[in-house]
Amino acid sequence: MANTGSAPAAPRGTDGSHHPARTGWTAFAAVLMIFGGAMAIFQGIAAIAKDDVFVATRNYVFQFNLTGWGWIHLILGIVIVLAGCALFTGAFWARAVGVVLAGLGALANFAWLPHYPLWSIVLIAIDIFIIWALCAGPDRAKA
């Protein structure tokens, strides 16, 4: 029987249950988390190695040690990548953890602004898209 004009049904598994991991927004958030986490890992490695890419702005409100920030970004990036992978399972806890970690990532990149402003703004935007995609999730199709 053909579907006439109604919205497509939410993806269902073989047992009839909904699988949020199979919705577009959750997959979008998972991919962005893996990408954003990988970029944070690279950012952290570069900061730990005292790369010349980063500059310290004088008289900025947030003045932190570059190596310390490198470790923060490295650890946060690894956790964000793992949470992004967990989103593909469709677990609700992974969505909640994803929102929290994306928020922490946005805050970390906000404090990172004096070291690498353009990249920080890009990663803040990615974190905001992640939060939006996880909060818009599978229930959006029902509206």
TrEMBL record:
Keyword Ribosomal protein (UniProt): no
Keywords: Membrane, Transmembrane, Transmembrane helix
UniProt xrefs under InterPro entries: DUF7144
UniProt key word Repressor: no
Domain DUF7144: 25-137
One Pfam family it belongs to: DUF7144
Protein name from the UniProt record: DUF7144 domain-containing protein
The organism's taxonomic lineage, starting at the top: Bacteria, Bacillati, Actinomycetota, Actinomycetes, Kitasatosporales
